[in-house]
Design a protein that fits this description.
Order of helices and strands: HHEEHH
Distance between the termini: 20 Å
CATH topology: Outer membrane efflux proteins (OEP)
Number of domains: 1
Oligomer: single chain
Helix content: over 70%
Radius of gyration: 38 Å
CATH architecture: Up-down Bundle
CATH class: Mainly Alpha
């Protein structure tokens, strides 16, 4: 099995999984959202300040609400609560970036470990299949030899029957090993988001 391991190919598989797997993309988007929220929070200092103007015409007379000042009047307000709130909002946005980046780093390690485990399982399944194919060939050769000796009358029917049963069993084990290879390959391709054959 060890001769089948290709660590350069494994690194390509890991890179492919990190590029294609949807959860990796979701976590990268969360980092981007956190960074955007931080930049947005940095500019919210201006929310504490507001300015407006009032225009009272010079020649208008208002008997119900007399106006002392006529013309344009500028009004500026400062929200003290917003000024005290702003540093905490910015701090929380900065921490949200760190959390999103740590989640992404953690998932990078997780996806790397999953790809490795599935790659090793795939290599193991291939090695097991090769052994099962060899066992089927050996059992088939044994059946041919025993059949030849049985036809000559040199072997009993029981020995011939046992050889046939062994061949059938080996074929069944080979089918199970083929299924294990397909399952391991499917599990690996699920993480990669691509077919193994497309990764060179």
């Amino acid at each position: 099995m060890f001769q089948d391991l290709n660590y350069n190919y494994l690194e390509k598989l890991i890179a492919t999984a990190k590029r294609n797997y949807p959860q990796v993309k979701v976590l990268q988007d969360q980092v981007n959202i956190a960074k955007s929220s931080f930049h947005q929070a940095s500019f919210t200092w201006l929310d504490a300040f507001s300015a407006s103007y009032i225009y009272s015409p010079q020649n208008a007379i208002n008997a119900t609400q007399p106006v002392i000042f006529k013309g344009y009047q500028l009004v500026a307000t400062v929200s003290i609560g917003s000024l005290f709130e702003r540093p905490y909002t910015i701090h929380n946005a900065r921490v949200a970036i760190k959390i999103a980046e740590e989640n992404q780093a953690q998932y990078d390690l997780t996806i790397e470990a999953q790809v490795k485990r599935n790659y090793f399982a795939y290599i193991e399944a291939q090695a097991d299949l090769r052994n099962k194919v060899n066992a089927v060939q050996d059992a088939s050769t044994a059946v041919k030899q025993i059949k030849h000796t049985f036809d000559k009358g040199e072997t009993t029917f029981q020995v011939y029957s046992e050889a046939l049963t062994n061949l059938y069993n080996q074929n069944s084990f080979r089918v199970q090993a083929e299924l294990a290879v397909f399952t391991a390959k499917t599990n690996l391709e699920e993480l990669l988001g691509a077919k193994l054959e497309s990764i060179k």
